[in-house]
Design goal:
This protein is mostly helical and 221 residues long. The protein has ten helices and no strands. The mean pLDDT is 92.
Length: 221
């Protein structure tokens, strides 16, 4: 299924049609606002796009957290870091040790028809701050909202971030394996890989050798 077309949508359509609040829905709206901003040279449209991108980043990192820890996320932990991408990332790293390695392991173990996107959370943190400059801008009007250079830099920046997210969201899934639900043999491969005893390539090769045994076990349950 092809991604929806975000171009040539009116403000009313952006607000009312396909109005979803997960990360992909936020980015979809941002790209539509950018389309209007470019065509009309409207600062407000750029600001709306920046806001949606910023919210999309916050939502995406939260989705990473929920996918990784599920219901084990403590409400107090969430309230402390709600809306703060840096704190959300720290919670991910605390609750899911070696999170980036687990993403790599999950990507390698999943079948080709279930691609996983590995997000660069440091980049997302940086993008969150950079995009915010076009929500909390300061300076004279001649060097901000009345400046073509300022406006174009904003369009370029927000477009760069939105495209990075849209590409990752439309070509892969935000997912990691649940270690508690892995078959013992796959869990052992993860432990060997995560401690540096075997390479990812070796883990994949061993998993392929184990596949008939694991499939037979699953089918006999």
């Amino acid at each position: 299924m092809s991604p929806p077309n975000f171009r040539n949508r009116s403000p009313k359509e952006i607000l009312n049609d396909s109005n979803f609040y997960e990360s992909s829905g936020r980015v979809f709206k941002a790209l539509s606002w950018l389309d209007i901003a470019v065509k009309t040279k409207t600062v407000s449209a750029l600001e709306y796009a920046a806001l949606e991108v910023r919210l999309a980043i916050e939502q995406l990192v939260f989705e990473e957290l929920i996918v990784g820890v599920g219901t084990t996320l403590d409400r107090k932990d969430y309230k402390k870091c709600k809306g703060d991408v840096v704190k959300l990332t720290k919670v991910i790293n605390r609750l899911i040790p070696k999170y980036e390695m687990l993403v790599d392991f999950s990507k390698a173990m999943m079948p080709p028809n279930f691609p996983i996107t590995k997000w660069d959370n440091k980049k997302l943190n940086s993008h969150h701050g950079r995009v915010s400059q076009y929500l909390h801008w300061s300076g004279g009007l001649d060097v901000t909202i009345h400046s073509e250079k300022w406006f174009q830099r904003g369009v370029d920046l927000v477009t760069e971030v939105a495209n990075y997210m849209w590409n990752g969201l439309t070509t892969g899934n935000t997912a990691v394996m649940n270690l508690e639900k892995l078959e013992p043999e796959i869990l052992e491969l993860w432990e060997l890989f995560s401690t540096g005893e075997i390479s990812l390539e070796t883990a994949v090769l061993r998993a392929e050798i184990l596949e008939p045994l694991l499939m037979a076990r699953i089918n006999n349950r």
